[in-house]
């Protein structure tokens, strides 16, 4: 729940989030629920206990739809279920990703395709399903989670970095295509956000110190830092922003 601002126009909005039951996605779900939005989300693992917690804290229960986002037919069906429950989707947040580390020499064709199927392909097909709903509603906001990883030229996950660069390109193409329908499409570029997964798998003291040294702001990012930025892009507070890549990384990369 944000302690900084309330976006009144998000109350009652129909919001759909991929990967909304863990990590940054769980924080996003709670952030939108706290604004009074009607939130539906998908992920593979069971999120029933998480929904129980959100309902206890806010008195509103998000709609959890189990789904593997690599199954496009199932993903678009989940969006139809969300719309049936909450009305036409007007805020789409493509958050789900898998940043598993991999080396160039170890990645086969199936591994490459699997990475793209998780990290890039769903963004196109969720937008395809959401666009008609947003047109009926008179507009909407699509927020695609990219990453500063490709902007930094990071090694260690070339397929992931490629997908994240592709998301930025897709965002700009869709912004141009959907703009006449008052549908905004922006990319959000997080820095290194210290979720439980990051802390468990990759956040060594040495790497944390090295990354913090690259930031202008000497404080590690938390999921809430990304929530507030996402709420802004979803709200009409950003009504004339589209086709943009909005960086939230504590000042590692420079745009413009």
UniProtKB/TrEMBL annotation:
One Pfam entry name: adh_short_C2
Keyword annotations: Oxidoreductase
SMART domains assigned to the protein according to its UniProt record, in alphabetical order: PKS_KR (SM00822)
Molecular function as annotated in GO: oxidoreductase activity, acting on the CH-OH group of donors, NAD or NADP as acceptor
Key word Oxidoreductase present: yes
InterPro entries hit by this protein: KR_dom, NAD(P)-bd_dom_sf, Sc_DH/Rdtase_CS, SDR_fam
Signal peptide: none
CDD domains per record: SDR_c (cd05233)
Domain Ketoreductase, first and last residues per copy: 13-195
Highest taxon listed in the record's lineage: Bacteria
Stated family: Belongs to the short-chain dehydrogenases/reductases (SDR) family.
Cited PANTHER family: 3-OXOACYL-[ACYL-CARRIER-PROTEIN] REDUCTASE, SHORT-CHAIN DEHYDROGENASES/REDUCTASES FAMILY MEMBER
Name this polypeptide is given: NAD(P)-dependent dehydrogenase (Short-subunit alcohol dehydrogenase family)
